[in-house]
Design a protein that fits this description.
The complex is a heterotrimer of chains A (about 325), B (about 800) and C (about 160).
Chain A: E1 8-10, H1 15-25, E2 29-32, H2 38-43, E3 51-54, E4 64-66, E5 69-73, H3 78-83, H4 89-96, H5 101-106, H6 109-113, H7 126-131, H8 160-166, E6 170-175, E7 178-183, E8 203-210, E9 214-220, E10 231-240, E11 243-252, E12 259-260, H9 262-268, H10 275-288, H11 299-304, H12 306-318, H13 323-330
Parallel strand pairs in A: 1-3, 2-3
Antiparallel strand pairs in A: 4-5, 5-8, 6-7, 6-8, 9-10, 10-11, 11-12
Helix pairs in contact in A: 4-8, 9-10, 10-12
Chain B: H1 18-23, E1 38-44, E2 50-56, H2 58-62, E3 66-71, E4 95-96, E5 102-108, H3 111-118, E6 122-127, H4 134-139, E7 154-162, H5 165-171, E8 174-182, E9 194-199, E10 205-209, H6 214-225, E11 232-236, H7 251-263, E12 267-270, H8 273-279, E13 286-294, E14 300-312, H9 318-324, E15 338-346, H10 361-377, H11 382-388, E16 395-396, E17 402-403, H12 408-419, H13 421-424, E18 432-442, E19 457-463, E20 469-473, H14 482-494, E21 501-505, H15 522-549, E22 556-559, E23 562-565, E24 568-574, H16 575-586, E25 589-595, E26 615-626, E27 633-643, H17 650-669, E28 675-677, E29 686-688, E30 706-712, H18 734-746, E31 749-750, E32 752-753, H19 757-768, E33 774-775, E34 789-791, H20 805-811
Parallel strand pairs in B: 1-12, 7-34, 8-32, 10-11, 14-15, 20-21, 27-30, 31-33
Antiparallel strand pairs in B: 1-5, 2-4, 2-6, 3-5, 7-15, 8-13, 9-10, 9-12, 13-14, 16-17, 18-26, 19-20, 19-25, 22-23, 23-24, 26-27, 28-29
Helix pairs in contact in B: 10-18, 14-15, 15-16, 17-18
Chain C: E1 5-11, E2 14-20, H1 26-33, E3 52-55, E4 58-61, E5 74-76, H2 89-97, H3 106-119, H4 125-131, H5 143-160
Chain lengths: ~325, ~800, ~160
């Protein structure tokens, strides 16, 4: 049986207390909420924190507030996000397609947003990684995906982040020194190792999602459950009649960070969602998809179908009945 | 044998081990624990191919909590499931042959301590160039992975020709020449292998282990540990899925036994999921070439089949697997002449072996896809083409296999009817299609893995005055329902309910030998042995009670817990009373039964692989929806008809069929035991791409299509109450049916498995460009096959023996 | 090395005084320290669902739950399902309908199904498939699992009436 390494364990009752522990322990401490990302990684010795700081016992992280927009406590489970009738469509669809029902019962919104980047050369046991003399992301010197690369290209595999970026969400980060709020896309850096702008002493406490967007999320993966995305397309629009007033398009699982495709959003503004407009917007989206050979499925194929997934999303927002397509791709209604 | 109305057989019934499975009471190997038990972990090679120069174990030995460290030096005797390839040591001695090859073991107070101590073992390796696949192994005879085999890195190389095939192809109107590739894949049983070994109260060694074949493990333990078999007891715990993956003895099983002998205390091991991928013994990757002749009216004239198997680092069942990539090919359709050449190459990857369908899904895929191409070319309905060429019941194949009953024709007609084939094939709108394929499988291999003249299965039944029926057999319950088959057959024969039957199985210490749960042999071999034992008991009891019942023994009926005269069912006695009368008269009641399959008709060397007392047959139609922009393949529904002879328990039989479809669809669409060779200039690594449950893709509940099952019941006289196998056959037609359905949907050929959307999209691009819309291997390499063993088919005055080719010329 | 943890765990409605190594997950404590081996494991990484138990009524993966975080929470395992000698309707249906072949994934699937039926007594087949989509099975092809859960739902509705 794979087992966890030894660790010390702390269970603070408040965010302030947790922040104080982080400040005191430094990088040797790691936060754990649902545990569905960190614990498997610890079992495979990707991370071996000396101290685990559990966020389970902090009630304020499980709060939900609904006003001008919505404010999600970072420790709300993905299931709670899915079942919350106030959740915008893209967020609900993204959260509903994370892994499995069990993992959605355990895993949290904050955990999914801070998900460690993934790579087929990295998400392996210590023994396997030893057989390739390790890799740039952990314990090694070479990135086996792109051997000339100085940068780790591990892929961002969060479903909820592209959805929330499209929805123009913001994240609240709290440390013992204070707090700050960042646009969600700014939480991420295109670096497989340092993929978050969150400092080690900061706690992601809350996600704020403004209202007023019509949105959708399309996920590509091999199976109907379990699998991480190998492509995620999220689109949010505000319509003025038949014309797009505002549009935000975000991509996931094609780089070390989820990101906003500004040009596609700009392009859509002021246009109707006609077939030609959708075609051109889809091309702009696909142009930004630069998958690497570090996830499931053929990378050229993943690149090639990105425009089709953008089309699915835009057509759905136009009002096309995409249920059958959704059923074939997602293998369930989401 | 009892005929006509059945009390137990054919009735939907809760399986005898059902309750234990749903309550958590069933004890799998890893659920066992004993006082003073210690735990073993294995250190495995990080190199695909290397010489072990030194192993330093001192630091590990001194680590607190460590009891013992073992290395290859503790195991001087090799093992191997087949006598012709005994090439493996429990812990590698001088050479490691794949990433994951075990080199040392730590036994410690708990798993955590054992794992920590593994990190203190220092191994010095001299790295050798890895052989990455079969083509690489053919091209590079050096470095040689083993110092035995045919030549270089060729492990097995063989050739058989039944009648002059080149001549048959020349006579054909059309010759189809196709190359196919079938990627390797693995069993992925939910249960990771585990074993617990200890010295029992009498000083004998006992191991409880998740093995499909306790008998073969027993023999290999005696060999490796150099102990008399009588002092070793192997208990096969219920397997949490086998599918062939627990047929070979595993290094870990020898390690815990050795450690238990050295330490004198119980030693347990549980493999991690990654280790299960390294134990493997699964589907061989096979490259194949098929040349098939056909007349204009769709009659097959002959086939020349060539296969090239990527065997991995050890022999395993490889010699048999090599045969199986050829021998069952002519069992579904009549090939007047047949030639097959097969070559297995050692490579530096986990050893391949038997997985559900053992060696046959690969050529079946090629054969059934090629038939679809033939039907297309001849503008013939693919179902009709198959019906025109069916092997007849009670006939011989060109290769001298005796086919008894066959329900293939009915299977084809059934799936054609159920699926609405005639309204769909070539008639659905573009993007939707249906594909048909057929298959066959053995009901048990006609020859044991090691040469002997003893029975393949033995059953002992004990009756006593309580009315309880205790049945002993070495067969192993791996989830397929073998205990239920055993209980049902005995209950039927003795006219009792299965609830009074207790099965004691898979224990070499107390049960008669059964060769194991492989080759779909259990229902027929164990079943026939059980019926023989039960009928002997019934005859004994009938002889005693017939007078009381006022009839002759032959007219005594055993049914529903009662024993009575056929002509006067009213009076009579209970089964318990009958047993008591017999026990009073005859003394303690017991009977044994045994079974050995009939001798095969072929007399040439190699004729022992392929014969079976009976063959099951299957036909399948798959419907697909193919998205032209993405190549995404959606399978909404599968229809399958399986010639089962008789369904002993229809619930279980249907479950086996759907389970086979599930595994076949997984192989068709996504499952792959694939490897990564890192850039040669920078690294020598050759690693498994996806040794985890997440990355090795197996279908989830959301990925399964609707499946409609038809069981075709035409009882086979060689089988117990006519029941044939159902565990392996229904997997086999699924993969080619998917490929054929993709073609029907969008007109592209994917000549390799798995059929992934990127390949479909690539083929669609070729189609748009006006090129050959096909993705698959481009060519078949020059393999130095030997001169064939030449045997004349039965209809060319053959006698089943090897002959000179000139004799053929004289006849034709 | 740290000292073992002493903790009271509520498993199947009974309080258990336990003593376990602090790195252990709920899976390890159930199987190794409480002898409740009905809960299985197939990967220990959250990739198969075999170790599913109910924690405060919700299906979770016991391989990814720290045992030390279970104090004061209700753990339900397959061993607690039967009503005395009588099988729970889900158990009976799995045994009767072919929902269990090798039986290794069975405890986890049954626990996931129990959580479903408690919230939704009349689920559709699609809802059953979705609720069990976190439990891999290599034997059945899922059909008879879905049928067993449907059958159990029927039996449970009858009980309520």
């Amino acid at each position: 049986m794979l087992r966890l390494p030894w660790f010390d364990y702390r269970a603070p009752r408040t965010v302030a207390e947790a922040a104080k522990i982080l400040a005191g322990e430094g990088p040797a401490a790691m936060l754990v909420a649902g545990g569905t990302d960190l614990l498997p990684n610890m079992k495979r010795r990707h991370q071996a924190p000396q101290v685990l700081v559990s966020l389970r016992s902090i009630p304020e992280l499980r709060a939900f507030a609904n006003g001008a927009g919505a404010a999600y406590g970072a420790a709300l489970t993905l299931k709670q996000v899915v079942e919350n009738p106030k959740s915008p469509t893209a967020l609900r669809q993204a959260a509903a397609q994370v892994a499995t029902p069990q993992i959605r019962n355990m895993g949290t919104l904050g955990g999914n947003l801070c998900l460690d980047t993934r790579c087929t050369y990295y998400n392996q046991t210590y023994e396997w990684r030893k057989a390739i003399d390790f890799c740039l992301k952990k314990d090694g010197k070479t990135c086996w995906v792109a051997t000339a690369s100085k940068r780790c290209v591990a892929v961002s595999s969060t479903d909820t982040a592209p959805a929330l970026i499209a929805l123009n969400a913001a994240a609240r980060l709290v440390s013992s020194a204070g707090e700050r709020t960042v646009n969600l896309e700014d939480l991420y850096k295109n670096d497989g190792i340092n993929y978050l702008s969150r400092r080690p002493d900061e706690i992601l406490t809350e996600v704020r999602v403004p209202g007023g967007w019509k949105s959708t999320y399309w996920k590509l993966r091999r199976r109907g459950s379990f699998d991480f995305p190998v492509l995620g397309v999220a689109v949010a629009v505000q319509m003025a009649g038949d014309v797009v007033a505002e549009a935000r398009v975000a991509l996931g699982a094609v780089a070390s960070r989820p990101f906003l495709v500004e040009r596609a959003g700009e392009f859509l503004k002021g246009k109707p969602l006609s077939d030609e407009v959708i075609e051109q917007a889809a091309a702009l989206v696909a142009n930004r998809a630069k998958p690497m050979d570090n996830t499931d499925m053929d990378l050229y194929w993943r690149k090639e179908v990105a425009d089709e997934f953008a089309r699915y999303a835009l057509r759905e927002l136009r009002g096309d009945d995409m249920r059958e397509t959704r059923l074939r791709i997602a293998r369930q209604s989401v | 044998m009892k005929k006509g109305r059945f009390d137990v057989v054919g009735k939907a019934r809760r399986r005898v081990d059902g309750r234990a499975k749903v309550t958590g009471h069933l004890r799998f190997a890893d659920d066992l624990a004993m006082p003073r038990m210690v735990h073993a972990k294995l250190l495995r090679s990080p190199h695909p191919h290397a010489v072990i120069e030194h192993i330093g174990v001192e630091k590990a030995k001194r680590y607190p909590g460590v009891h013992l460290v073992l290395t290859g030096q503790d195991f001087p005797v090799p093992f191997g499931i087949m006598p012709v390839s005994v090439d493996e040591y429990p812990l590698a001695r001088e050479r490691v042959r794949y990433v994951g090859d075990p080199v040392a073991a730590v036994i410690a107070k708990d798993e955590q301590t054992a794992s920590e101590a593994l990190g203190l073992i220092e191994v010095t390796y001299r790295v050798l160039r890895p052989i990455c696949d079969a083509v690489d192994g053919l091209a590079n005879p050096e470095p040689r992975i083993h110092d035995y085999g045919e030549q270089g890195n060729i492990h097995r190389n063989q050739s058989y020709e039944f009648g002059d095939v080149d001549e048959a192809l020349k006579r054909a109107d059309l010759v189809f020449d196709d190359v196919f590739f079938y990627e390797g894949n693995t069993h992925l049983p939910m249960e990771q292998q585990a074993s617990l070994a200890f010295i029992d109260g009498e000083g004998k060694l006992q191991i409880s282990s998740s093995t499909q074949n306790p008998h073969y493990l027993h023999r290999q333990l005696a060999r490796v540990l150099q102990m008399p078999e009588a002092k070793i007891r192997v208990v096969a715990t219920p397997n949490g899925g086998g599918f062939g993956g627990k047929c070979d003895p595993g290094g870990h099983e020898f390690v815990v036994c050795k450690a238990a002998l050295v330490l004198g205390r119980p030693v347990k091991i549980g493999l991690s999921r990654e280790e299960v991928f390294y134990v493997h013994r699964g589907r061989h990757p096979v490259l194949m070439r098929m040349r098939t002749g056909v007349t204009k009216d769709g009659k097959l004239t002959g086939m020349h089949l060539q296969t090239l198997l990527d065997g991995g680092g050890y022999g395993s069942h490889g010699p048999a697997s090599t045969f199986y990539t050829g021998v069952l090919t002519p069992v579904t359709y009549q090939y007047p002449r047949f030639k097959f050449e097969a070559c297995r190459v050692f490579t530096n990857k986990p050893a391949c072996g038997p997985k559900r369908g053992h060696g046959t899904p690969q050529p079946r895929f090629g054969q059934e896809v090629q038939l679809d191409k033939i039907a297309e070319k001849l503008a013939m309905d693919p179902a009709e083409l198959r019906l025109r060429n069916l092997v007849k019941a009670n006939s011989l194949t060109a290769s001298w296999l005796r086919v008894g009953s066959t329900g293939l024709e009915e299977c084809i007609r059934k799936v054609v009817e159920l699926s609405g084939w005639k309204d769909k094939h070539r008639k659905l709108p573009r993007g939707r299609g249906v594909g048909l394929a057929c298959s066959t499988y053995m009901c048990g291999a006609g020859v044991a893995i090691y040469w002997n003249k003893m029975p393949h299965s033995g059953v002992q039944i004990l009756l006593d005055r309580s009315g309880a029926v205790i049945v002993y057999c070495g067969a192993t319950e791996i989830g397929q329902g073998s205990d239920d088959v055993l209980a049902a057959l005995v209950a039927e024969a003795l006219g009792v309910d299965t609830s009074v039957v207790r099965c004691v199985t898979g224990d070499t210490g107390i049960t008669p030998v059964d060769l194991g749960s492989y080759s779909s042999r259990v229902t027929i071999m164990m079943g026939n042995a059980a019926l023989q034992a039960a009928e002997r008991l019934r005859a004994s009891i009938a002889a005693v009670v017939s007078e009381t019942l006022g009839t002759i023994p032959d007219r005594v009926v055993f049914s529903q817990g009662r024993v009575f005269a056929a002509d006067t069912p009213g009076p009579g006695m209970t089964f318990v009373e009958a047993v008591q009368a017999a026990e009073a008269h005859l003394g303690t009641l017991s009977a044994v039964g045994s079974y050995a399959p009939p001798k095969p008709p072929g007399k040439y060397k190699g004729a022992g692989v392929g014969p079976s007392p009976a063959y099951s047959f299957t036909a399948c139609v798959v419907e697909t929806e193919v998205d032209e922009r993405t190549g995404w393949v959606h399978v909404p529904k599968i229809w399958i008809a399986h010639d089962i002879g008789r369904a002993l328990n229809p619930v279980l039989a249907r479950g086996q069929v759907i389970g086979g479809v599930y595994m076949g669809l997984g192989e068709a669409l996504m499952e792959a035991q694939a490897f990564r060779r890192l850039p040669e200039k920078l690294s020598g690594a050759l690693v498994h791409r996806s040794p985890s449950m997440l990355d090795y893709k197996s279908l989830t509940s959301l990925d399964m299509p609707e499946v409609e099952v038809a069981l075709i019941e035409d009882p086979d006289p060689n089988c117990p109450y006519g029941a044939k196998e159902v565990g392996q056959g229904p997997l086999l037609p699924v993969m080619p049916a998917v490929a054929n359905a993709v073609f029907d949907a969008v007109g592209v050929r994917i000549d390799e498995v798995p059929i992934t959307p990127d390949k479909v999209l690539q083929a669609l691009h070729l189609q748009k460009e006006g090129k050959l819309a096909r993705v698959g291997p481009e060519s078949f390499p020059a393999v130095p096959y030997p001169e064939p063993t030449f045997v004349l088919p039965p209809w060319e005055n053959g006698d089943g023996k090897e002959t000179k080719r000139d004799a053929a010329a004289a006849v034709v | 090395m740290q000292p073992s943890l002493r903790m009271r765990l509520d498993v199947n409605g009974e309080a258990h005084e336990t003593l376990f190594a602090p790195y252990k997950t709920l899976l390890e404590v159930l199987r190794e320290d409480l002898g409740l081996t009905g809960t299985k494991h197939g990967c220990e990484l959250g990739e198969c669902g075999a170790c599913t138990v109910l924690l405060d009524g919700e299906p979770v993966l016991s391989c990814l739950v720290l045992a030390r975080e279970c104090e004061g929470r209700a753990v339900q395992t397959i061993e607690g399902l039967a009503r005395g000698p009588e099988l729970h309707p889900l158990q009976a249906a799995f045994a009767d309908c072919g929902g269990s072949q090798c039986g290794y994934c069975t405890p986890g699937v049954i626990m996931a199904a129990k959580a479903l039926l408690e919230k939704n007594p009349s689920p559709t087949r699609d809802e059953i498939r979705a609720a069990t989509s976190g439990n891999l099975c290599r034997c059945t092809g899922y059909h008879q699992i879905v049928e067993a859960i449907e059958d159990a739902a029927g039996r449970m509705r009858e009980e309520v009436q």
